[in-house]
From TrEMBL:
<dbReference type="GO" id="GO:0005886">
    <property type="term" value="C:plasma membrane"/>
</dbReference>
<keyword id="KW-1133">Transmembrane helix</keyword>
<feature type="region of interest" description="Disordered">
    <location>
        <begin position="1"/>
        <end position="25"/>
    </location>
</feature>
<feature type="domain" description="POTRA">
    <location>
        <begin position="236"/>
        <end position="303"/>
    </location>
</feature>
<dbReference type="InterPro" id="IPR026579">
    <property type="entry name" value="FtsQ"/>
</dbReference>
<dbReference type="GO" id="GO:0090529">
    <property type="term" value="P:cell septum assembly"/>
</dbReference>
<feature type="compositionally biased region" description="Basic and acidic residues">
    <location>
        <begin position="10"/>
        <end position="25"/>
    </location>
</feature>
<dbReference type="InterPro" id="IPR005548">
    <property type="entry name" value="Cell_div_FtsQ/DivIB_C"/>
</dbReference>
<comment type="similarity">
    <text>Belongs to the FtsQ/DivIB family. FtsQ subfamily.</text>
</comment>
<keyword id="KW-0132">Cell division</keyword>
<keyword id="KW-0812">Transmembrane</keyword>
<keyword id="KW-1003">Cell membrane</keyword>
<keyword id="KW-0997">Cell inner membrane</keyword>
<keyword id="KW-0131">Cell cycle</keyword>
<dbReference type="InterPro" id="IPR034746">
    <property type="entry name" value="POTRA"/>
</dbReference>
<keyword id="KW-0472">Membrane</keyword>
<comment type="function">
    <text>Essential cell division protein.</text>
</comment>
Length: 450
């Protein structure tokens, strides 16, 4: 059964070859005897005698054959069909007889109608056998495979096998592709590609568009018109000014600083610049500005005068930090404020205020404080009397003088100055009249003693 099935398939193969090969369709092929010596074929169609296969080592099976498409496929070796060497008397160029032609002559007699009897089982078996590359005829007997391929008009199997590896594509990337891939892995290059290139394109486009002078002028004109239309809207108009916490002179000075006349647009009033101008006023300590409901509101906190400073240029009012508040025309205008004088007195205002606070019991006799050498104070009393205070801890020295006055009525004496610069040795300097009276009393005491 195996030989008969293979015979049918090979018969189909032979008929397909006859339709495509004029040599195999010749009458002498059909008249080839079933047994004995086969018909002699031209030697150029066969391999040399020493390359021909024998019955022991050559096995063939027919390829798959589709009756609808007469396509001829190459032969492969199979264990179910083989060739016999033919009669012993065959010549050196004899065609080897298939064993099935010897064992089954009835199959060769029905060559004309063999294609019609091809079964599905034979086609399936042939397709499975064709996939056995390890037993293929092209691998075991290349010379015979070339001869059969030339006879059937098929391409050379060795040529196909040699050309196949050359057609394979090298999967490795090219040198340029490799370098581009490595370059793309760097963060700087990716950032430059994703951000730098689009930004450059946009800037380049804007530069080219704005390169025309007419376009620039039109753009500026449109911007100015839009700005003026927005600034002239009623919700941005300022019609009134309200100032709180300022004296009359400061109020008038602030109103004179307003850059525009009301009503005006709020865009024309620079609040930061106006605040800086108001703060520069000596009488103003701080100021808050805001625009609400068409009104500019200014809250002013003025400096409070704490002391008077007399210098060569006149009389100035200073606050507790020594900052100038205003110029005073006369001492009588602010008799409630203490007076300081001397070079550098304005720099020691806090210390002068502490001394004036301690000297409250003698304020009716106090005329003022004089800064000496920019390092210490002299307290001036009525009658041109002076209390010379030390540079270090003058408040304690003043308290000691007040204690002596309370105990011995020191300040009621006829003296010129009380020197407290040396705490361990206070010195009192008397007037000329007091000194004469003191000598007279001492002389009387001496006469009475003698």
């Amino acid at each position: 059964m195996r030989s008969l099935g293979s015979a049918r398939v090979l018969t189909d193969r032979l008929h397909a070859a006859e339709r495509h090969d004029p040599i195999m369709s010749a009458p002498r092929w059909r008249e080839m005897p079933r047994q004995g010596a086969p018909a002699q074929m031209p030697p150029e169609h066969f391999s040399p005698p020493h390359q021909r296969a024998t019955a022991e080592d050559l096995h063939l099976h027919a390829p798959a054959f589709d009756p609808q498409t007469p396509e001829v496929l190459p032969f492969h070796a199979a264990p179910d069909t083989d060739f016999a060497a033919g009669d012993a008397g065959a010549g050196p160029g004899a065609w080897p007889q298939p064993r099935w032609l010897v064992e089954a002559p009835d199959a060769a007699a029905n060559l004309e109608d063999a294609p019609a009897r091809a079964s599905a089982e034979a086609v399936t078996r042939a397709a499975a056998a064709r996939r056995r590359d390890d037993n293929s005829l092209a691998r075991r007997h290349p010379a015979l495979a070339r001869a059969i391929a030339r006879r059937l008009g098929l391409p050379d199997p060795e040529a196909q096998g040699a050309a196949a590896p050359a057609a394979r594509r090298d999967p490795a990337p090219s040198r340029l592709a490799y370098r581009l891939q490595r370059l793309w892995l760097t963060p700087v290059f990716r950032s430059l590609t994703r951000i730098g290139v689009p930004v450059f394109v946009v800037v380049l486009g804007l530069g080219l568009w704005l390169g025309d002078e007419g376009r620039r002028a039109d753009l500026v004109g449109r911007y100015e018109a839009l700005r003026e239309a927005i600034e002239a809207r009623p919700e941005f108009r300022v019609e009134r000014m309200r100032i709180t916490g300022a004296s009359a002179p400061v109020d008038g000075a602030i109103r004179a600083m307003l850059p525009v006349a009301l009503p005006a647009s709020s865009f024309d009033i620079d609040l930061a610049d106006l605040r800086a101008q108001i703060v520069r006023l000596d009488a103003v300590s701080s100021v808050d500005l805001a625009i609400r409901n068409g009104t500019i509101e200014i809250a002013v906190r003025e400096r409070v005068p704490a002391i008077l400073w007399r210098h060569a240029g006149g009389l100035e009012m200073l606050d507790a930090t020594g900052h100038r508040v205003a110029t005073l025309v006369g001492r009588s205008n602010r008799p409630d404020l203490g007076l300081i004088a001397g070079q550098g007195a304005q720099e020691a205002v806090p210390e002068a205020l502490r001394l004036l606070s301690v000297a409250a019991p003698i304020l009716p006799q106090l005329r003022g404080l004089v800064r000496v050498g920019e390092r210490r104070w002299d307290m001036v009393l009525t009658g041109d009397r002076r209390l010379l205070l030390p540079a270090e801890n003058p408040v304690a020295a003043l308290r000691r003088v007040l204690a002596l006055d309370k105990a011995e009525d020191l300040l009621a004496r006829d003296f010129v100055q009380v020197d407290m610069r040396l705490a361990e040795r206070p010195t009192v300097r008397l007037t000329e009249a007091a000194q004469g009276e003191y000598r007279r009393i001492k002389a009387l005491e001496m006469q009475v003693t003698h």
